[in-house]
Amino acid sequence: MLRPPSSTHKSPTGATQGDVAKLLRGAGLRSTRQRVDLAHLLFAGGDRHVTAEALHEEALARKVPVSLATVYNTLHQFTEAGLLREVAVEGTKSYFDTNTSNHYHFFCEHSGKLMDIATGSIRIKALPAAPDGMVISRVDVLVRLVDKPTR
What we know:
By secondary structure, the chain is α+β, with helices and mostly antiparallel strands.
């Protein structure tokens, strides 16, 4: 049975549309047709990183009638419900990751591709103390890549 992921669990992948509807209800979201369709696109094929624009194009190609604004709203609702993790790359450029566990990313500046870094490849020895009244919720590491210069 599927369950909503927490910070230590991966989002469900390989889910059927029925599984997705149950997952949405379990996360406190109404399972509207558009949410179910978008969630199925997100979770049915394994872990992935997707922009709102790319998901919108994929939805339209699969004959899912949805506006870009609805895709943005749905991605943010899924993120707030713990089903996705948002990875900010540039000021307004974000990717949504179906793997909600704590992990880090490579970002290829030329292709715009976001990739997971193998677990254990980065070690953080210490974190600064959080300001009074605050706690650290997570640490994001984004390693930027460019092509090697040719000689």
